[in-house]
Design goal:
Largest sheet of chain A: none
Radius of gyration of chain A: 16 Å
Strand order of the largest sheet of chain B: 2-3-7-4
Radius of gyration of chain B: 20 Å
Number of strands of chain A: 1
Number of strands of chain B: 9
Structural class of chain B: alpha+beta
Distance between the termini of chain B: 46 Å
Distance between the termini of chain A: 34 Å
Shape of chain A: elongated
Order of helices and strands of chain A: HEH
Largest interface: A-B, 29 and 24 residues
Shape of chain B: globular
Oligomer: heterodimer
């Protein structure tokens, strides 16, 4: 059954995931790579990751 | 000349928690003698609060775009997981014929393994409800050549590709059942939703639980991803199968030796009142996160080799008949 409202809500959720991966993820991946290279610990920050 | 596979990364971590969450083994009920429902710990769909949520998000964010792309498309497919059934009910010739019809349809839609069972309390997460009493469990294999280099990005993408394929099959099957006038809801999110697919798959005869905590089937070993459709269409259930997996896993040490963080125990353990194989969550999940999905155990498993499962099963069952012994993991 077609439901434009549901489709739109799903599209928004999909965009949120993609945006999160791109922006927050980009930052996290850069910092994590730096910690890996330096042999230090990237502390998983709940406030940053779950905001 | 083919180069030898590189050794897996060591179980040392460049990430960690400042405030460690509660042990996943405690949440999972390791050592508990009383039965209770499972709780979400690491993966969960649609925003449940999770003890290990931050690591779950970290896992998604460090993963390859190819993985996240499949995850997003699964979300799109699942918008049609449920819906209103057609007004006129078709009984499809009774529960036995209906079960045959549903299995044939699932296979036409792409499932390689299909089984039917009742939804039991043990297969539903705490605090969750499943709306219909019968589960149709679907399995889709991963391509072994893509899994050969585990743990790597190619394998991680292949895992999600298989999840997406089986999710699409589940959504299409649910729509087909609704078109016959019955309620049906598809569960195909790789992040756990309301259901535990593995116990349902065991009950539905798709295979048995292996030492590495995954389903082992005769055809594909654990190279299989699962989805489930629940429905109120009366369907004749399947029975659990005995492939000799328990006997085999008690003797075999391949996955427990191959597991870099040593998360796989060689003994059966009591978890929420049931004696079964259990993987140490607190050792497994950091390594799983570091390697973006690991899967070393399911690829190392002797049952994973295409066509070998039937031979192993025959040998184990023949040995049991000869020795008159049966080892059960519960």
């Amino acid at each position: 059954m077609l439901s434009p409202r549901r489709d739109l809500a799903t599209l928004r959720a999909m965009l949120r995931i993609a945006w999160g991966w791109l922006v927050t993820g980009g930052r996290v991946r850069r910092r994590y790579r730096r910690h890996q290279a330096e042999g230090t610990t990237y502390w998983i920050d709940e406030d940053e990751l779950l905001s | 000349m083919k180069s030898p596979p590189s050794p897996p990364p060591p179980p040392s971590y460049a990430f960690g928690y400042r405030r460690p969450p509660r042990s996943g083994n405690l949440i999972n009920g390791l050592g508990e003698r009383e039965p209770r429902r499972a709780e979400h710990v690491f993966h969960s769909s649609f925003g449940s609060p999770l003890e290990w949520a931050a690591m779950d998000h970290f896992f998604t964010l460090i993963n390859a775009w190819g993985v996240v792309r499949h995850l997003i498309m699964i979300r799109w497919a699942l918008r049609r997981a449920e819906g209103t059934p057609a007004e006129v009910k078709d009984d499809l010739g009774g529960s036995v014929a209906a079960a045959q019809h549903v299995k044939a349809t699932a296979q036409t839609l792409g499932a390689r393994k299909v089984g039917i069972t009742a939804v039991t309390e043990a297969a539903v997460y705490a605090g969750r409800e499943v709306p219909f009493p019968t589960a149709i469990v679907l399995g889709t294999p991963m391509r072994r050549e893509a899994m050969a280099g585990v743990p790597d990005d190619r394998a991680a993408v292949e895992v999600m590709r298989a999840y997406r394929e089986v999710c699409n099959t589940a959504v299409d099957l649910a729509r087909h059942i609704r078109s016959r006038g019955w309620n049906a809801k598809a569960y195909g999110d790789p992040n756990s939703g309301d259901l535990l697919h593995v116990p349902l798959a065991v009950q539905a005869g798709l295979g048995q639980l292996g030492k590495h905590g995954s389903l082992i089937s005769a055809e594909y070993g654990s190279n299989l991803r699962l989805a489930t459709v629940v429905t109120d269409l009366p369907l004749a259930p399947d029975q659990p199968v005995d492939l000799g997996v328990d006997d085999f896993c008690l003797l075999c040490r391949v996955c427990s030796t191959a597991c870099p963080p040593g998360a796989i125990a060689d003994q059966i353990q009591t978890v929420r009142g049931v004696d079964k194989w259990y993987v140490d969550f607190d050792r497994c999940i950091p390594y799983f996160t570091k390697t973006k999905g690991c899967a070393i155990c399911i690829e190392a498993c002797p049952w994973a080799e295409t066509g070998r499962g039937f031979t192993i099963s025959e040998k184990m069952l023949a040995r049991r008949r000869r020795d008159g012994t049966e080892r059960r993991a519960g």
